[in-house]
Structures are given as structure tokens and as C-alpha cells.
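Sequence in, structure out.
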Amino acid sequence: MVMPTGDPNHASILRCIDQLPGTPVAINLYCTRRFRQPLLERFDRVVNYHNGSLPGFRGWRVSNWALYMGAPSSGLSFHLMTEAVDAGHILATTQVPVRTHDTAAELELRKALAARALLPALLDSIVACDDGRAQHGIACEYNRSAYELATRVTDPSALCREEWERRLRAFLRIQTQIDGRWWPVTAIGDGENGAPLSFTSADHQRLSVTGLDFWPASWIHRINPRHNRA
């Protein structure tokens, strides 16, 4: 079953589901589109794998946000889906440690392995028609707008060096404007006055861009000066 435009709510998907002999349960793994009510109503229940603790880390790219916040651990949850983002009752959840030099990809892999270990218990709860437990605590949702705000910096001198390093570790690439042009920054280092793509941070340190889209900044700057268009 192929989703037109990547949308699981598309009418053709609903028609395909209606032709199936029985659709009591669906399990969503890594589809980031919200399931709307017409799709949810096709099933007795829909279970979603979410790569964050609930309700504190609802939404999009929450592993990146856990790294940005310096959390000592990061969670994952299987929960019943509703139209609200990651708001349904929890069926299974656990935490994995965040290591000192973790990237988001390494953290995601560790979560996937932990999620696999939860599958037998999860399937037992589905068979038993377990309604799970309600979420408790302060809810916080991270959406695409928050991600774009964190990864697009109009003025690089508005951030201190520590903040630059935190964002690059968590989000890998920051779009920023230097000398009136946008650059996809992936690494920074000590800089000197007059060095290409250099700026002074909010804590008065001279920094230079040392990586652009994961290529050395000096190499790209030399062979393709127009690479800077965002």
C-alpha cells in the first residue's frame, strides 16, 4: 500500500483499508503524519511508536530536543493514538541513557533497540485490550516551527559559543547569515580576524565556520562561492 503524497489519511488509503477482511489494530512506526479521525475510525485501536517520553516530549524531532536540553536520559513510548499529537494513553514506555558524545542518530538507534525489547509486552497488552494509562505531568509539544526557529539564526553574533555548540550537536546543521548570505553551518572553531566566514559570538569569542553541509568550509568557499544560497 503506497501513500499518495505520503499522507496516510488520503482517500485511496481509506478505500484500501475498507477492502481488508478485518482491521482491528494498526501499529504506526515512524510515520510522522498525524492520523485524522476518518483513518482512526477504521480500526478498533491504533498504537503509535513515539521516540520520546510523554507528555513532556510530544511532537517532532524530540530526540534532538533531548540532546539540546542536555537530558541525562531520553524516553520512548507506545501509546494509543488520538487526533491530538501524542496525547493518547500509554501502553509501554522506557528510558535510554544519553551519552556524552551521542548524536541524534545514535540516540535514535538505542531507542529503536529498546523499543524492540518492549514488543512482546506490547503485543500482550494489545491482545488483552489494555486501555493503558493516562499521561500525567506537564505536556510540551515540539513542532516544525520550533525546530526551524532553533536551526535558523539570522545573526550569528546573537549566540554565545556554548549555545552554538549545543545547537550543532543537537540539530547538526544551522542555517545562519554571514556577510548578508545564508550558509548551512555544520561545524565551528576558533577564528581569526579576516578569516573566511568568521564572526564574533555573543560572549566575544572570534569564531569561524569550519563545516558547511559536512564539507570543510574553506574547500567549499574556494571552489564554489555560490554554495551560500539557502
